[in-house]
Amino acid sequence: MAKTGVWLIGAGGALASTAVVGTRAIAHGLARPTGLVTELPELRALPLIGLDQLVFGGWEVNSRGILHQARALAHDHRSLNPGLVAAVEDDLLAVQRRLQPGFALGGGPAAPSRGARAQRSGREPLEKAVARLGDDLQRFREDERLGTVVVVNVASTEPPIALGPEHARLGSFRRLLQEDRRELVTPSMLYAYAALERGCPYVNFTPSPGITPPALREVGETRRVVFYGSDGKTGETLMKTVLAPLFRYRNLEVLSWEGVNLLGGGDGQVLANPRHKQSKLRSKSGVLAPALGYAPHATVAIEYVPSLGNWKTAWDFIHFRGFLDTPMTVQFIWQGCDSVLAAPLVLDLVRLAEFAQRVGEVGPMTHLACFFKDPLGVRISAFQDQVQLLLDYVERHAGRDLTQARGGG
Amino acid sequence: MAKTGVWLIGAGGALASTAVVGTRAIAHGLARPTGLVTELPELRALPLIGLDQLVFGGWEVNSRGILHQARALAHDHRSLNPGLVAAVEDDLLAVQRRLQPGFALGGGPAAPSRGARAQRSGREPLEKAVARLGDDLQRFREDERLGTVVVVNVASTEPPIALGPEHARLGSFRRLLQEDRRELVTPSMLYAYAALERGCPYVNFTPSPGITPPALREVGETRRVVFYGSDGKTGETLMKTVLAPLFRYRNLEVLSWEGVNLLGGGDGQVLANPRHKQSKLRSKSGVLAPALGYAPHATVAIEYVPSLGNWKTAWDFIHFRGFLDTPMTVQFIWQGCDSVLAAPLVLDLVRLAEFAQRVGEVGPMTHLACFFKDPLGVRISAFQDQVQLLLDYVERHAGRDLTQARGGG
Amino acid sequence: MAKTGVWLIGAGGALASTAVVGTRAIAHGLARPTGLVTELPELRALPLIGLDQLVFGGWEVNSRGILHQARALAHDHRSLNPGLVAAVEDDLLAVQRRLQPGFALGGGPAAPSRGARAQRSGREPLEKAVARLGDDLQRFREDERLGTVVVVNVASTEPPIALGPEHARLGSFRRLLQEDRRELVTPSMLYAYAALERGCPYVNFTPSPGITPPALREVGETRRVVFYGSDGKTGETLMKTVLAPLFRYRNLEVLSWEGVNLLGGGDGQVLANPRHKQSKLRSKSGVLAPALGYAPHATVAIEYVPSLGNWKTAWDFIHFRGFLDTPMTVQFIWQGCDSVLAAPLVLDLVRLAEFAQRVGEVGPMTHLACFFKDPLGVRISAFQDQVQLLLDYVERHAGRDLTQARGGG
Amino acid sequence: MAKTGVWLIGAGGALASTAVVGTRAIAHGLARPTGLVTELPELRALPLIGLDQLVFGGWEVNSRGILHQARALAHDHRSLNPGLVAAVEDDLLAVQRRLQPGFALGGGPAAPSRGARAQRSGREPLEKAVARLGDDLQRFREDERLGTVVVVNVASTEPPIALGPEHARLGSFRRLLQEDRRELVTPSMLYAYAALERGCPYVNFTPSPGITPPALREVGETRRVVFYGSDGKTGETLMKTVLAPLFRYRNLEVLSWEGVNLLGGGDGQVLANPRHKQSKLRSKSGVLAPALGYAPHATVAIEYVPSLGNWKTAWDFIHFRGFLDTPMTVQFIWQGCDSVLAAPLVLDLVRLAEFAQRVGEVGPMTHLACFFKDPLGVRISAFQDQVQLLLDYVERHAGRDLTQARGGG
User: Fold this and answer.
1) Separation CA A404–CA D100 (nearest Å)
2) Exposed e or buried b per residue across A155-191, where buried means at least 16 C-beta atoms within 10 angstroms of its C-beta
3) pLDDT for the residue numbered B144
4) Which residue, among A76, A262, A311, A326, would best test binding to C if mutated, counting the most C CBs under 10 Å from its CB?
C-alpha cells in the first residue's frame, strides 16, 4: 500500500509541529501512541494505515519554520520533551523542506509576519491561488508517490463570515473565485476548495468557515471525496459533552453553565481578537442544548493569558437544581496542553479519512462526530452517543472485504 | 390499582424525611418532580405508579421522629425549604404514627440513643426479630390496604462483614437465625430476609451487606420477589462513572484519581468510624477499573466535617497522560445536599421495583444498575452504559400489555 | 447618649435589608455579631455606639419595600433565615415607614420601576432635589431625636463619569446644581452633597462616583464632617489584597492574575450593563500593583448569572514564577452571599464614622481603608497593612478622654 | 571575606540538587534570583554574602549522586530546566566529590538503599559517629578555606520521638551518646549535635526532631552558635498563615479548615509511612489556632501520589460563618514544585544564618520565623506578622557598623 500524505494548513504552528514530532517519535519507537483513538482495541478491526506510513507537508504563512516551533514548544512552553525534538530533528527538517507558502488575505492577527514566505497573497487573485495550491497538492502526491493526500486545516481561527446565496451552489461559488470577491471567500474556504477539487479528503480541525459553505460540500460530493469538521473537541467542550448527560439522565435541571477559558500561545493571541473569538464561541456554545434538551443560561469566555504559553486552563461552573428545587453546584478545572491534546486527534482523523476514502465513501464523515465541537450534519452532542456512532461504523466495516476497496483519492 | 407501600429502614433519618416531604409536596402540587429519573420523557412509556399513590412507613431505632428530622433539615441544615416542611406537617405526623421499632445489634455509632424506641434489640433473638419485622410489614399492608410494599434500606452504613459458607445457602442462613449467631447476621441482612420472606421487593440503598449474601438472593428467588442494590450513586462516584469514559475513549491514560469527600450529618458521623467507612470505600473504589479497563492509582478519602451538616463537598484530582506522555490534570468539585440527591432516586427505585414486581419479574433488577455504586451482578460501571440498560428495559416493556400483570408481592 | 441615625441610600435593596434585619436581630438577642469588625477584641477600647442604638431610614427609588425584600432574601435566595425575618417584621415596617423617595436621573438598569415612589426625579431640578433630600435628613434627625445621622450609599453602581474642572471646587460644583447640569452630576454626588452639606457623615459603600469629586470633599471639610469610600471590599478583591503579600514577600513573580466573578441578584443585573460594570472593574483592578510592586497581566471579569440570586462565586487563577523561573499556580474559589458579607461592614462603618465625628475628626477617614477596594487617599492595598492603620487608630484613641468629645454632626 | 560553606544533610535529594543547580546557575548569570527573599529590596540593607560565595558539600545516605538526581528532576519530573542542569554539570560533579556518607539508624523508608555509601551506620556507635561527622565539617572548612559552614537539614522526615528528661540537659544527652542509646537519638539530633558542637550554624528545614531537644539548644548557646527551625513553609501551610488573618480581622468564624496534600517524589514516599507522616502533620496543624485565636475543626491529609513526581497539589476547603451565621466557603488549590519552592528559602536561611553568626548573635534566630511552619520559640503564625519580625531585624541591623563583626563560626 502506498504511503499517505498529510498536508497541513498552518504547518508551522504548534499543533502541526506536535503532530509531526509525535508521529515520527512513535514511528522510531521513542514514544507510545497514548491519546490516539485509532489505537483503541475497539478500532483494531479497521485496517488503518500505519503511523509510520504518513508523510507530512503543508502550507504556512509564517517563515519561522517547524523545527523552530518544535524547539520553542520544548524549551519555552514545556509542552514537548526536548529529547524527543532533538531525536526527530532530521524528520522535521524533511517536512520543513516540503512546506509551501500559504494564502492569506492580509490583516488580522494571524497574518504573515514581515518577510514571511506567503505569496504576498493580498495581491494574488483567488483563481490563481486555487490553481497554485492545487498544484502544490499534486506535486506532493507525485514527488512522494503517495496514495491519498489528506488535507487538514490546523491554522489559526478566522473570523466568522455570513454565508449568502453565493456560497450555496458550486456555480455561484466559482463565480466568486473568478470575480476575485475576496470579501466573501476566506482562506479556509479557498484551501478547502483547492483540496476537494483535487480529490483530497479535507478535515477542518478549526472553527474557521472551511467546509461550511454548501458549495464546498458540493465539490466534495462531485469529486467523490470525503470531508469533515469543524473544530476539534479537545478540552472544555469535550468535558461539557461528557458531563451534560449526567444532568440529563438524573433529571437535574442545569440553571447556569459558565465556562472560562484561559489560554496563551498563538491560538490565545488570535482569539484575543474579538472577531476571531466569535468563530470559536459559536462552535463552543452550541453543545449544551442538544445534550440537555434545553438551553440553560450559559456563557463561554475566552481570555488570552500570555504566560500560559501553549497550555490552557478552563474553569466551568455549573449551577443546577435537584429535588425540591435545591440548588447545587459542580465545578471543574481542566489544565491541559492544547497542541498535545489536539495532535493525536489530527492523526486519528487522517487515518480514518484515508480509510473512508479507500473504501469508497463520499461526503461528510458523520461517524467522526465525536472528534468535533460542531460536527457537520450531526445533532447529537453527547460525547458517548457520538462515540457510539464511531463504534457502529467500525462494526459495519469490521467484516468487510477490503480487497474491493478503490485506491485513495 | 391499590396504593403502594414504601417501608423505609432508617425512617427517621435525613434521607427518609426528605423523601417523604418531597413526595407529599409533589402530591399536593407544591413542588415539581425535578431529580426524578422516572419523570424523564424516556420513561413515560412505563405505566408507573403515581407519586400520590405512595404510602410511607418504616422502622427506626431512634426516637426523635421524622417531623423533628424534617424541621432540623429545614432550619439547621438549609437542606429543605421551611415552608414545604410546614405545609406537609400532617403528612409527616401520619407517617410518624406508622413507624415501628427497628432492630439494632447495639454498639456502633448508629446505635439507638438512650430512651430510643428500639426493642432493646440487643436481647431480642434473631428469629423472633424476623417474625416481628415480618409482622410489621404484614400489618402495614393490611392496615393501609396496599398492593405491593417495597422495603428500602436507607439506614446508616454498617461495617463490612466477611461472608462465609453460612451465608451461601438459604438453609445454612436460616440456621444462623435459629442459633442466634449475631456475629454473622447484621441488621441489614435481617431486614432483607424479613422483607423478601414476606414477598416484599427489597432495595438496598446503602453499602451495608443487606442483599449481598447469596442465601438472601435465594429467598428472593424462592418467594418470587425482585430486589436490588447496593449503595445509591449520588455524587462523587456518579461523577467518576460519567467522566471515566472520556479518558477511555480518548485513549488518555489515567495515572492517578484521588477523591476526597467531606461530609457532615449523621452519615458523616457514622462514616467517621473506620469500620463503617470501610463499607463505603469498598463500593466507591470499584468503579474505575471497569470503566477504564485498568486500575489507576486511586484513593478515596472520607472526612467527617460536622459543620457541613447534610451537605457534602467532594474534590477529585485526576492526573492523566496524553500524547507523548504529557501529564495533564482535571479536577472537579461537587457540592451537593446528600439527602436531596438521594431522595428522588429512592422514589424512582420504589416505582420501578413495584412495576417489575407487578409485571412478574423475579430476582435482581439489573436494569437499575445506573442507580448504584455497586450494582448487583453488573460489571458495567460507565454511567451512560448503565443508563442504556434502563432505556433498553423501557423499550422492551413499552408495548407490553399490562393487563396480564399479576398483583404486587 | 442620643441614638444614631443610619440613613441608607438604596434602602430597599438586599444589602440595606440585611443590615436592618441583622441589627435588629442582634439587638433582640436573636443573633450573634459575627462578621462585625467593631466587635473584635482589638476594637473594644473604642467606646462605639451600641447596635441597639441605631435607628434606620433612607431613600429608595423602588416601591417594593424593605420587608418584601427581606422576605425574598429569606425565601428565594436562601440568604436570610426566614425565622429571623419573621421575628423582626415590626422593625422592618417601622423602617419602611421612614423611607423617602430617592433621586434618579432616569435611564439605566437601576432606574425606578413604573409606579415607583421616586419623585419623577427626571424632572426635579438638581437644586430643588438637594434641598428636598437635605430636609429628609433634618426631619429624620428631629423626629427620632438623633445625635448623628450617618448617610451610607448602598445603592446600585452608577456608570463612571469623567471628572472635569467643574467638579474640582465647591463653587463650580454649586453652579452645576444651580444650572441643573444633569449630565455632570450623578445621583450619588447629589446624595453626598446633600448629606455633607447638612453635616452628616457620608460613607460611599459603592463604586459610584459619590465622594470622589474634590468639590464634595471640600463640602465635608467646610462643614467639618467625616466621610469615606469607595466600594466595600467583601470578596474576591479582599482575597486579592490578602494573598498578594505572599507573592511579594516570597519574591515570587506573579505572571498573570485572572479573576472571574459570577453574580446574580440586583447587583449582578446592574453590573451586566457594560457602562455600570466599568465603575466596578475600576475599583477592583487597581489593588494588585500597589500590593505587588508591579502590575501583572490581570483581567477581572464579571458575569451576571441570574440563578445565583444574592450569592456570588469568584474564581481566581494566579500564574506565578518561582525559583529558576518555574511556573506554578494557585487558584481560589470564593462562594459567598454578597449582602451578608457587606452588611456587617456597613454597620462597622456607621459606628466608626459616628465615633470619628463625635471626637471631632474631619475629612477622609483613612483609618478605614481596610473596608474598601479603593480607599480614598490611601495607596496601601495589602489587607493586613490596612488593618494596621485601623489598629493604630484604635491605639491612638484608646486612652482618650472622651468627655471632651463634641456632639455628633 | 572568606567563602561560606553550605553543608547539606540529605545532599543527594531533590531539594539539595535544586539548591545547588540554582545557586550555580545564578552565579553563572544563567538565571535570575526569583524566589529568594534575601533579594528583596527590603533586605538590601543587610550586607549578606553573595550567592557566588557559597561552596556546597554534605552528607548523603544514598549513592545515586547529585548529578543523577538533577538530571532526573529535569527529565522525569519537569522540575528543572534540562539546559540549566547541563550548564552546571561540572559544578554538580565538584559538589558530588565533596559528599560524605551520612548516618542512618536503619529501617524506615528513607534508609540507605543496598550498596549505598552510608557507613553501615546501624553498627557505628553514636559517639564515634558524632566525631566522624564533626571531622567531615572540619575538613570541609579547611579544604575549602571557608569562613562559616552552615549546616542545613534537608533530609527526609523522620518519625516523631517523645522527648524525655534525657533530652533536657546537655549532660544527660551526652550520656545518651556515650551509652549508645540509639532508640532515643535520631539521626537529625546527631547531625545537629555534631554541627553545633563544631561551631557551625544549624538550620532544620525539615520537621524532624533535629534542633528540638533543649539539650541541643544548650550546645548551640554554649558554643555561641546560631540555629533555627523547624520545617520550611513552602506551600499549603504558607497559604494558611496568609489567609487566616482574613477571617481573623473580618471577624468571620472558621468552622472547618480541611487540607489535602497530594505529593509524589521521595518526600511523598517517605510521608506515606504513617509514622513519618506524623511529624509533618504536627508541624502543619499547629498554625491555625495562633492565627485565628481559636482552633476550628481541621484535618490535614497527606496522600502519596507517585505520578506527581516532585510536584504537589494541595486543596484546602474552608467553611466559615459570616453575619447572621450564614455559612460560606473559600477553597484554594495550590500546584507547585516542592523542591523549587524550598530551594531559594534554603539559600536565604544560609545567608541570614551566616550574617547572624558573623555579627555575633547566638541561639535561636527568631527573626526567621516566616520561613518555618513551626518556628522555634515564636507563637506568631500569621505570615505577615512573621515577615514583620524579619523587617524589624533588618531595620535594627541596617545602620550597624559591621567592621566589628567577628569571623564566622
Assistant:
1) 72
2) bbbbbbbeeeebbeebeebbebbeeeebebbbbbbbb
3) 97
4) A262
- Provide the strand spans (E) within D206-296: 226-229, 253-263
Give dist(CA D309, CA D267) in Å, integer. 9
| Chain A residues near residue D83 by CB distance under 8 angstroms | 75, 82
For C270, other C-beta atoms within 10 Å of its C-beta total 21
User: What pLDDT sits at residue A122?
Assistant: 55
D58, β-bridge pairs: D8, D99
Contacts of A78 in chain D (CB under 8 A): 78
- Rounded to a whole number of angstroms, the distance from the CA of D226 to the nearest CA of chain C is 23
pLDDT band at A210 (very low <50, low <70, confident <90, very high): confident
A267: exposed, middle or buried (Cβ count in 10 Å: 0-12, 13-18, 19+): buried
Closest of B361, B363, B365, B360 to residue B404, by C-alpha: B360
Chain A residues whose beta carbon lies within 8 Å of the beta carbon of residue C258: 262, 303, 305
**C236-337 CATH, one of 3.90.360.10, 3.30.160.60, 3.90.1030.10, 3.30.360.10:** 3.30.360.10
Contact B13, B266 (CB under 8 A): yes
Lowest mean pLDDT among C225-239, D147-161, D273-287: D273-287
Rounded Cα distance between D272 and A190, Å, is: 59
Outline which parts of chain C fall under CATH 3.40.50.720. Answer: 3-232+340-403
Cross-sheet strand order for the sheet of C311-321: C297-304, C253-263, C311-321, C327-337, D327-337, D311-321, D253-263, D297-304
Q: Specify the fold of C3-232+340-403.
A: Rossmann fold (3.40.50)
Q: Can you tell me the distance from the alpha carbon of B210 to that of B231, in angstroms, rounded to the nearest whole number?
A: 10
- Least Cα separation, residue D75 to chain A (angstroms): 8
Measure CA of the first residue to CA of the last residue in chain B; give whole Å. Answer: 14
State the Cα–Cα distance between residues A129 and A101, nearest whole angstrom.
11
Q: Do C306 and A327 touch (CB under 8 A)?
A: no
pLDDT at position A278? 77
Q: CA separation (Å) from C120 to C105, C130, C182?
A: 9, 15, 14
Give me the pLDDT at residue A399, please.
65
Residues D211-260: pLDDT tens digits? 999 999 999 999 999 999 999 999 999 999 999 999 999 999 999 999 99
Contact (CB, 8 A) for C233 and D246: no
Check residue C77 and give its pLDDT.
Answer: 80
pLDDT at C169: 95
Mode of pairing for the β-strands spanning C253-263 and C226-229? unpaired
The verdict on pTM exceeding 0.90 is yes
Helices (H), B179-327: 187-197, 214-222, 236-249, 265-271, 274-285, 288-292
Q: Do C308 and A256 touch (CB under 8 A)?
A: yes
Residue in this structure with the C-alpha cell 505577615, named with its chain if needed: D384
ipTM: 0.93
What is the structure's pLDDT at B352?
98
How many alpha carbons lie under 13 Å from residue C223 in its C-beta half-sphere? 24
State the pLDDT at residue B399: 65
Chain B residues touching residue C83 (CB < 8 angstroms): 75, 82
pLDDT in tens, A56-113: 999 998 768 899 999 999 988 889 999 999 999 999 999 999 999 999 765 444 444 4
Q: Which of B209-213, C105-109, C111-115, C213-217 has the lowest mean pLDDT?
A: C111-115
- pLDDT, tens digit, for every residue of A190-209? 999 999 999 999 999 999 99
- Which of A361, A265, A256 has its CA nearest to residue A317? A256
Residues of D in CB contact (< 8 Å) with B are 78, 255-256, 258, 260, 262, 297, 299, 301, 303, 305-308, 313, 315, 317, 319, 327, 329, 331, 333
Pick A160 or A296 by higher pLDDT.
A296
